[in-house]
From TrEMBL, chain A:
PANTHER family listed in its UniProt record: SUCCINATE DEHYDROGENASE 2 MEMBRANE SUBUNIT SDHC (PTHR41910), SUCCINATE DEHYDROGENASE HYDROPHOBIC MEMBRANE ANCHOR SUBUNIT (PTHR41910:SF1)
UniProt keyword Heme present: yes
Single annotated GO MF: electron transfer activity
Gene Ontology terms: biological process: tricarboxylic acid cycle
Cofactor: heme
Major localisation: membrane
Keywords, in A-Z order: Heme, Iron, Membrane, Metal-binding, Transmembrane, Transmembrane helix
Name this polypeptide is given: Succinate dehydrogenase cytochrome b-556 subunit
Keyword Transmembrane part of the UniProt annotation: yes
TrEMBL record, chain B:
InterPro entries documented for this protein: SQR/QFR_C/D, SuccDH_FuR_B_TM-su
GO molecular function terms attached to this record: metal ion binding
Protein name: Succinate dehydrogenase
Transmembrane recorded as keyword: yes
């Protein structure tokens, strides 16, 4: 293949890919989440038993990943709306993406302790 | 080529038209007639596009608020249990919040996955089956979730 002919994407393409991947992941979690919540109609014990798995360190890590996916999808979704409806949106789409990434990094750093604190205490003792 | 410039009709047309010899009537292109087929599809895709943006804005508030309460405040996930759910659904405000979030998120996600299936499933049959599965799962989940919110009983035993 001649060099330099493969399109590897820029900010626009990769943010589109990330938006799809996070969207599909969130949707699959939503199915599971409605099903586990439906256990409140079975018995308090059945619900508490399943929710106990959500409190284990490994699932806590998955929850941190869920927060990561939702925050990116939410922030980038607002960027997509701005691109579509704001007259200068398309011109500033790159700057808006890096703004999204910046806010996302700050929020993910802030989420470390609240989401993973209990798992760290369990693993390393309080 | 004739040097005569009094006629607007070029020499190719040959015959000159007048009242006794009118030019043939040619229908205007794209003119709506009785034989024009009616539009075969409506504005569904545009409505879906708009719905994704409107529901998206509302979901940012609903879902981030939900995450904040469930995973961040008051000990995060550690406090969640049947008693916590019962306490929240005692209030109609949170019932409506969760119901709206359920419907908007499921429809938003369903339409998102419909787009993904349309993009990547190349055979018509594959698309049909995947979307059939998607719509079945979506309707089931929305109905189940709605039923759970409306029939929740804190004194189940």
């Amino acid at each position: 293949m001649p060099a330099g002919t493969l399109y590897r994407g820029r900010e626009g393409m990769w943010s589109w890919v990330a938006h799809r991947v996070t969207g599909v992941l969130i949707f699959f979690f939503l199915f599971v989440h409605v099903l586990d919540t439906a256990l409140v109609r079975v018995s308090p014990e059945a619900y508490d038993e399943v929710v106990a798995t959500y409190k284990t360190p490994i699932v806590a890590l998955l929850e941190y990943g869920l927060v990561a996916a939702i925050l990116f999808h939410a922030l980038n979704g607002l960027r997509v709306i701005a691109v579509d409806f704001w007259s200068k949106g398309p011109r500033y789409q790159k700057q808006m993406l890096w703004t999204v990434v910046g806010i996302w990094v700050v929020l993910m750093a802030g989420s470390l302790y609240p989401v993973l604190g209990h798992a760290a205490r369990e693993l390393f003792g309080s | 080529m004739s040097a005569d410039t009094t006629s607007a009709i070029g020499p190719v047309e040959g015959a000159s038209f007048d009242v006794d010899n009118p030019a043939p009537y040619i229908e205007a292109p794209r003119k709506r007639t009785g034989r024009t087929p009616r539009a075969t599809r409506g504005n569904f895709e545009m409505a879906a596009w708009l719905f994704m943006r409107l529901s998206g804005v509302v979901l940012v508030v609903l879902v981030l608020g939900h995450l904040l309460i469930q995973l961040f405040l008051d000990g995060g996930v550690s406090k969640i249990g049947f008693a916590f759910v019962a306490g929240r659904w005692a209030s109609p405000f949170w019932q409506v919040w969760d119901l709206l979030m359920l419907w908007l998120a499921m429809l938003h996600g369903c339409n998102g996955l419909r787009t993904v299936i349309n993009d990547y499933a190349e055979r018509a049959n594959t698309r049909l089956w995947l979307k059939g599965l998607l719509y079945t799962a979506t309707v089931f989940t929305i109905l189940l979730g709605t039923l759970v919110i409306f029939t929740f009983d804190p004194n189940i035993r």
